[in-house]
């Protein structure tokens, strides 16, 4: 296990992956205020359906571990694969600290973990560091742990599973800002993540203007129906 002046556990998550890709700049000005729109992920899912994109995941598959929050932000992606060699002790292999060097405040960490939710790739210490870096939320196709600590950090997190068993020494971080798989969806760095208590959508930046235009039309129609115009 590696050590530094903060102690032996301070380096957890700082494994260097083989692939570090580009994170596109994305203009999120038009998404200002979207986090307050009721039912946002459902409306966005309908719009993406109409545009021919299948880029949404249900909260049945990936429940919100802290409820009542809607998060909108640019995706920073992390990819894990099974560790190829069994280690004598659970050393590192997690890469969230390395990934956090590539984020801007308001970004959303989107992590391809083990999918099945057997092994954790994100816990209380990772949540603390993510909040320090201004991360808006975390989406994990895999497991998280230390849910009480994550809740205390008030960090919105969605995940396939929850476990006490770490992915350290079992999973290997292989890529930051590379395309990843979240359930049946391919997520690319720079996609706009829209996550709430119904589901998680990943909007490609090139269709964001059209999505915004259609969203405004739908919201106007909903206000007319509700008599709140
Ligand atoms: O080892 C893990 O799964 C991560 C962890 O506990 C933490 O970040 O606190
Ligand atoms: Mg922990």
Automatic annotation (TrEMBL):
Pfam families recorded: RraA-like (PF03737)
Native source species: Alicyclobacillus cycloheptanicus
Family named by the database record: Belongs to the class II aldolase/RraA-like family.
Entry's EC annotation: 4.1.1.112, 4.1.3.17
Task of the protein: Catalyzes the aldol cleavage of 4-hydroxy-4-methyl-2-oxoglutarate (HMG) into 2 molecules of pyruvate. Also contains a secondary oxaloacetate (OAA) decarboxylase activity due to the common pyruvate enolate transition state formed following C-C bond cleavage in the retro-aldol and decarboxylation reactions.
Protein name per its UniProtKB record: Putative 4-hydroxy-4-methyl-2-oxoglutarate aldolase
Quaternary structure and partners: Homotrimer.
Cofactor: a divalent metal cation
SUPFAM superfamilies: RraA-like
Catalytic EC class: lyase
Cross-referenced CDD domains: RraA_family
Reactions that this protein is recorded to catalyse: 4-hydroxy-4-methyl-2-oxoglutarate = 2 pyruvate; oxaloacetate + H(+) = pyruvate + CO2
InterPro entries (UniProt xref): RraA/RraA-like (IPR005493), RraA/RraA-like_sf (IPR036704)
